[in-house]
Structure formats: C-alpha cells, structure tokens
Amino acid sequence: MQSGLRHRWFILFSIIPALLFVFGIVLYPLVQTFIYSLKNMDLLSDHQGQFVGLNNYTHALMDSDVWSSIGRTFYFSGVSITLEMILGLLIALLLNEKLRGIAFLRSIIILPWAVPTIVNAAMWKWIYHPEYGALNGLLMQLHLISEYRPWLSSPWLAMNMVIVADVWKMTPFVAVFLLAALQMNNKSIYEAASIDGASIIRRFFTLTLPFLKPTILVLIVMRTMEAFKVFDLIYALTQGGPSNGTMVIIYKAFIETFSNLQYSNGATLSYLIAIIIGILTIVYVKVLKLEEGA
Amino acid sequence: MKSKSLSVVQCTFGIMVAFCTLAPFAWLFISSISYQVDLQEVPIRWLPHRITFERYINIFTNSKNEIAYAFRISMFNSLKVAASVTLIALVIGGLAAHVFAKFDFKFRQGFVYLFLFTYMIPSVVIVIPLYLFFQKLGMLDTKFTLTVLDLTFAIPFVIWIMQSYFRHLSKDFYEASALDGCSRLQTLWLVVVPIVRPGILATTIFVFLLSWDEFFFSLLFTSSLNAKSISVAISEFSGKHAVDFGMVATGGILAALPPLLIAIIFQRFLVSGMTAGGVKE
Description:
The complex is a heterodimer.
Chain A (H helix, E strand, L loop, with lengths): L3 H34 L17 H8 L1 H32 L6 H8 L1 H4 L2 H11 L6 H8 L13 H28 L4 H9 L4 H29 L3 H6 L11 H10 L4 H31 L1
Helix pairs in contact in A: 1-13, 3-8, 3-10, 8-10, 10-13, 12-13
Chain B lengths: L3 H29 L3 H4 L14 H7 L5 H37 L5 H13 L6 H10 L6 H25 L3 H9 L4 H12 L1 H17 L2 H6 L8 H10 L5 H21 L1 H11 L4
C-alpha cells in the first residue's frame, strides 16, 4: 500500500502553486479594497483616510445615481439575455434540422463570438456612425428612415444599441451551447410524437423545452454574471454616456476610482458589485447541482 | 411530412441569420481596404470602385506610420502575453484541477468554490490595491505584470473547466498504473494527460481567447508600447476624433484574425469546452 504521506504530498504539490498564485494576488487586494471602502480615501486631497465605518455604504445606497446605474445594469442584462436566449434557441433549433446549407451556417455561426470585445465595439461604433455609418446607409436604402440618425446620442437609444452589439456577439454562444444539448436529445421520441400527429409547436413545448430547461437555466445564470460585469463594450462604445444613459454600475465604479480619484467610493461600489456576483455564484452552483440531480 | 410554409420560414430565417452574422464582418473588411474619401461618401457605396491594401502593408512593414507601428507592436505584445498566460495557467491550473477532480481531501469543495468566486468577481474589485502595489514596485507597464494579472482569472478558469474533464476519468486507470509501478506524477503525465487531450486542447483555446480578449487590466496597467495590448491600441485609436475608420477596421480585422482562425479550425473542441464549463461539480 502506498503511504498516506506521499498521497498528501502529491495533493499539496498540485494545489499549492494555484493557491499561492491566485489567493496571493486576489485575496490580499480583495481585503484591501474592503478596508478602503470603510475609509474616506480621496486621492485629490491626498490623505490616507480615517475609518468611517459603513458610512460609504449607506451613502452609496441612498444615492439615486447609484440606484439608477444598478437599474441600467439590470436593464442591460435583462434585455440582452432575453434576446440572446430567444434568438439563440431559434437558431439552435434551425441548426438542428437537416436542410440544405445548414452545414455552412453551422460553421459560420460561432464567428461573432470569437471577435474580441473591443474589436466588436469598434466595429459597431463604425456601423452606427451618424454621418457615414453602414446602419444609416442600409436603413436609408430600405426606406426605413428618411434621414441619417445619431444612434449613440440619446441615452435610451444608445443603451439599446449597446445591447444590439452584445446580442450580436453572444447569441452564437447561446445557440451553439443549446445545439450541443439538442444533439444529445433522443430523436425517436420526436418521430413517435410526429407520427402521433403532434404539431411542431406542441412538440416544442412538450418535448424540446422541458429537455432543454436545465441547459437554459445554466446559460441564463452564466450570462447574467457576465452581463453584470459588462465594461469593455461600454468603455469602447459610449463611455457611459450620453448623459449617463449607459452608465452601468461597473462603469460607475471605474469612473469614481480612476477619473474622480475617489478610491473609497469606488471601492464601496466595487464591493456592492462583488456581493451581487457572490450571490449569483451561489445561485449558479445551486442550478448546476439541480441539473446534475435531475 | 413537413409543410411547405414551415420550410419557407426556416429558409428565410436561415438567410437572415447568415446575413446578420456575416454582414458586419464584410463591412469591416471592405472598410479596411477602402480609401478614406470613399468611406465618407453619402449615400453609402457598398462595393468600393477602387481598393487599397496600403494599411495592411503599413502595419506589417516597418514604415514611419505611427499608428500602424503601434498596432504591430501591440499585436506582438498581446501574442506574447496570451501565450505565456495560456502555458502557465494550463500547468498550474491543470495540476490543481486534476487533484480537485480525482482526490478527496479536507476543504476540497470549499477551495473549488473559492476559485469559482475568484473567477467570477469583476476585476474592478481588486484593481486599486494591485495598482498601488505594482506602482510601488515600479512594475507598471510591463508584459510581466500583465501576465501575472491575467493569471488571476486564467488559473481559476482552467481549474473550473478542466476538472469536469478529469472527473469523467475512470478510477481504474489509476489503479492499473499504480500496479505497473507508476508514481502519481508519471500516472498524470503518461496516462491521464493523453486521455483528456481533447479537453486540454479545448481549455487551451479558451484560455488563449480569454487572455487575447482581456482589456481591463491592459487598459489600466499599460501605457506605452512596451506592454500595451492590441485591444487597448484599437480602443485608444478609435476613441480619437477625426479617425481614419479604415485604419480602425484594419486593426480590428488583424486583432480578430487569430481568434477567428482558432474558432474555425478547432470548432469541435470549442463546443465541448463551452459545455464542459457549464456542467457538473
């Protein structure tokens, strides 16, 4: 019998590099940020700050700007994930059919997902360009608009255009993920159902959707965590503007910290985000466990 | 039997999906080979009547063009950082993932969740102390620092994905190789690694894409061409007024090319990698 000691050494040897590395550079800043959030640090006045307890938190939670940026984060996440799920499901169902040209569509569908976020943002910024943009050109030629529009100049419209860019990039991910699940599905049930005369819509709601439910749940939680952290896209497309129309909570934390140099305020907002993400992580793990049990 | 109207709907939808997927790429490419004057034409002209590859040539050959030079250097920076991150994360994360998946010990589950949480928390939460720390060391704006920072999310990511691959492995392999006199490391290298090779390949691709795409740390921690990544170079340039749209498009095409090629060549592995992250534990 191998000695338990060697067993233990092997485990230690394997996990210590990862532990040292990740917790060495993550845990320390994580704690430090929390301490900042309890102080009144402000780089403009250059003082190290005194402890102010939970003052920063109560301030942040009473600030209507903070709440509206949380609201925008929810709007962004909610709308983009809903669209990605519906479109992704429809595309996955289409790709699962045997039709002419489906092989081609399958091979190209993943491409938008592979595009780096910043390139994606720069590309859409160019497409949305108020004077020379392709979107204006296309809609004009289709006679859907009568004059060129500035797509990123009004708060609400800008947010929706950011969502379009996100949906373009992430729908393929959802579609491919769901397609992989569909392909594990048992075809014979479908054939039996269609011989029984069940309509395609009925089959979808009684067979496909229940089968995909766990995968959909996993996707929703995964996408929610990512959508809550949306930063790159906003930075490159709108910088939080116009008039804070796309100021999501992460972007606000970033501005507070690096433009306004209010370290403590930035740290407080960051921690509020970390708490939300922490809750979502727990939900995610729960959902995965549920799926495994099912 | 399928009804005719359904086929029509499917066909139309398929064409729309194909159009929406490909049109932005096509426009980006057309913009990159058009003259600036032609891009500013109103009404828009979809197919340019003359084309130029000058911007591509500028980026690849050593010219005096400042922006082209910045794009080239920052591409190489991104490549070096992404390659180092991928390699280190695979070794360190892979070792840990293997143990988490196959061995039982105290706090195992707790560690796994802790790693998952470190992967999930947004970088903005840890960035201020890290910035002050590296500033004190005089190590801002280096590829080394950027690599270290990227590893903070790359290692947990590898652990999370890889353990689902290791988990499917039968215990029998371990017993058989132990009987043959293999040490645990030998077992890992000679038996386990060859079996989970597809999983390793999928993880490699994902980590590479993840670090190639990384923006937040590069934005804050790099300032010169010494370490600046291609994403930062593109966002800086496209943020300026009166930009050369064609140049942004060219940089974009080149920055998107490595991940796009990877996605096309390794599609099969990508799909298995995507789903691996979302199941089990």
